[in-house]
Design a protein that fits this description.
Helices cover 17% and strands 31% of the residues. It is α/β, with parallel strands linked by helices. The longest helix has 21 residues. It is globular, with a radius of gyration of 25 Å. The two termini are 37 Å apart.
């Protein structure tokens, strides 16, 4: 997110990584501003993030482990501390004010978390999953002294079956975390050990909800729904936690408004196709969702005998026969596992647009201009973790009122409930992969070649990329995967774009947002960044859409709502007052409207939703207390865009 004209000064102000810097002693305080949010002032150990954290696979029985834990920060090589340093409020990262710690974590440190928990008595006949929404970066988990599992990655959820290590009464849970932050090459987004300008305070440790829930030994692990509005169907794949027998089956039920639309039974670990007649399509103006229930059930074994089964297994018609048999099978007893999910009937594609010869982004087979903001997702009191679910949703509500129908989630992954809110409110999302790499692997805007990584680093990047897509593809609001941002750790982007499209063919792939465009055959859009007073127009394309992945950047410092008062701030342009702010915003919007009408521009992303630390490019102040302009005024300026592009 930088203009080519100021790259050098920005790099001097805030180096991408600091591998050679002297590590601060463990326990050094991070900078904590007096700035806070109204939601942050209401946070207590009893109300911190209480909603079920996985809205696309909801189980009724669960126990939230958020709240006060014991913590210690010690040298990485030290053994488990005999005494802890104090208490931390989970799920807020160690460096944040809301964690009640606000201490710096260096690459040479290890964070220790400890708490006790008791498993409800009525879970005794079930396995127990211990789940983490996200931990940054590498975690080792112990229950009652035994290691139950480890995980690497700062943005994805993970969990372990801890049943074998549980005992009656209180159980001890220990989580160890290390985090190289900007001294490493791992995906980390905008975190840096020495924050300044467009680089923000590093975060470490547990930063999303921790919970336990009972499951049977064989249970539902994932539900994937892929709509096809052209056929009027939805393909549903249900993955189980392990091998299934002939009598293990999954019952699927799609409904809307309490009315069953379609239902079937399929063999476990198979895919079903449900017909959705007269489908109610999802769009930003009409975000209609269908409910989906998946149940693991037991049926009578349908096969005449093992010999018949073996014979049919080699018959090309076996799959169709199997589906017919299972669909008519009789369920025995109650479901062994049940999860609630949902889906939307919507399609995103590239096709003919309003300007002849220039392809456009289509939603539900019709051109729909996507106007969004660059959304960093940082908070003055919680840093990576919004102070509450309500606070997190408030950004989307504001943007909808201000006339935006899209946001680009910028090199960060949010808690799952964020995407659930976007699904329900009707907000399109471009989801970035968090960037990684070292300082010499961050390319300049004039670079002609991509970065070079060792194979192990590339493999880890690709693993975490696939984890992100796997977890988020259930959310219909996400319409585009953005693989690289401005050459930050960009390598072999054409291969990665094809990799992403293979993982999820139902969404668009933007291989490179800004700067080095080296994947024209794999990327479905040409994306430029333009921070000029009037946005530049991307070169016209014959086989892909053209978009402004970033534009705007009008700064407006609001006294009393600045991260570091009197210390200087950073923005692309500066408005002296609210009137000039609107003049500058209008000038940029007029340029976008012109490009959409005359050049066939498909999307534009304004920088940015809110101020973040030193950066004051936001439509909102960092504490979300003051809009730089009213949402009504912003919507009025954008109104000609929708009028010009809406068919009569």
């Amino acid at each position: 997110m930088r203009s080519l004209l100021i790259i050098a000064s920005l790099l001097a102000l805030a180096p991408v990584t600091a591998p050679a810097q002297t590590a601060a002693p463990a326990g050094d305080a991070v900078y904590t501003s007096d700035l806070t949010t109204r939601w942050g002032r209401e946070v207590t150990p009893e109300n911190a993030w209480r909603l079920y954290p996985r809205p696309q696979m909801v189980r009724e029985r669960w126990v939230n482990l958020n709240g006060l834990w014991d913590y210690a920060i010690k040298p990485k090589a030290a053994e488990r501390p005999a005494a802890m340093d104090g208490q931390i409020l989970v799920p807020f990262p160690v460096e944040s004010k809301l964690s009640r710690v606000a201490r710096k974590v260096t690459p040479g440190d290890r964070i220790w978390y400890r708490r006790s928990f008791t498993v409800p008595a009525d879970w005794r006949d079930q396995n127990v999953m211990l789940n983490f929404g996200a931990v940054d970066y590498e975690a080792t988990v112990r229950v009652n002294g035994s290691v139950v599992g480890s995980h690497k990655g700062g943005f994805d959820a993970f969990g372990f079956d801890i049943g074998p290590w549980l005992k009656p009464g209180a159980n001890e849970l220990i989580v160890e975390v290390t985090d190289p932050t900007s001294a490493g090459t791992q995906p980390r987004g905008k975190q840096i050990l020495d924050p300044a300008g467009i680089w923000y305070t590093a975060v470490s440790g547990i930063w999303q909800t921790v919970w336990i829930e009972p499951v049977p030994k064989l249970h539902i692990a994932e539900v994937r729904a892929a709509p096809d509005i052209d056929r009027g169907t939805v393909d549903v794949a249900v993955a189980l936690s392990g091998w299934a027998n002939d009598n293990d089956a999954v019952r699927l039920t799609a409904s809307a408004g309490g009315k069953v639309i379609a239902s079937t039974i399929i063999r476990a670990n198979r895919q079903a196709t449900l017909a959705i007649p007269n489908a109610h399509l999802w769009s930003p103006d009409d975000p209609h969702l269908y409910d989906l229930k998946a149940e693991l059930v037991t049926i009578a074994v349908p096969w005449a005998g093992e010999a018949e089964r073996d014979r049919r297994a080699y018959d090309s018609r076996f799959t169709d026969h199997e589906r017919r048999v299972y669909a008519k099978a009789k369920v025995q007893g109650a479901p062994r596992d049940s999860v609630a999910a949902y889906f939307a009937m919507r399609k995103v594609s590239i096709g003919p647009g309003r300007v002849a010869g220039q392809p456009a982004i289509l939603l539900n087979n019709k051109p729909l201009f996507q106007h969004g903001t660059l959304d960093q997702g940082w908070w003055p009191d919680g840093l990576y973790t919004p102070p509450s679910e309500e606070a997190m949703k408030s950004d989307i509500v504001f943007l909808k009122k201000a006339g935006f129908n899209m946001l680009r989630k910028h090199i960060k992954v949010e808690p799952a409930r964020y995407y659930h809110d976007a699904d329900r409110l009707g907000m399109l999302i471009w989801q970035d992969m968090p960037s990684g790499g070292g300082e010499d692997q961050y390319l300049a805007g004039t670079s002609q070649s991509q970065a070079i990584f060792p194979s192990e680093t590339m493999a880890e990047q690709q693993r975490q990329l696939s984890e992100m897509i796997g977890e988020l593809r259930a959310f219909p609001s996400i319409v585009t995967w953005v693989v690289n941002n401005e050459g930050w750790g960009q390598y072999d982007s054409a291969t990665l774009a094809r990799f992403v499209k293979g993982l999820d063919p139902t969404r668009l792939v933007n291989a490179n947002s800004g700067w080095l465009d080296v994947a024209p055959g794999a990327s479905e859009m040409l994306d430029i960044h333009t921070y000029e007073d009037v946005p530049r127009t991307p070169p016209l394309q014959t086989d892909r859409a053209i978009v402004l992945g970033e534009y705007g950047g009008v700064g407006f410092p609001v006294p009393g709502h600045i991260w570091k008062p009197g210390k200087g701030n950073w923005s692309y342009q500066v408005a002296r007052d609210g009137k000039e702010y609107l003049v500058r915003f209008r000038r940029k919007m007029e340029g976008v409207i012109r490009q959409a009408e005359e050049a066939g521009l498909s999307a534009a992303v304004y920088t940015q939703t809110s101020d973040v630390e030193d950066e004051i490019n936001g439509l909102l102040t960092y504490d979300r207390a003051v809009p730089k302009a009213s949402p009504e005024a912003l919507a009025e300026i954008a109104a000609p865009l929708w009028k010009a592009l809406t068919p009569d």
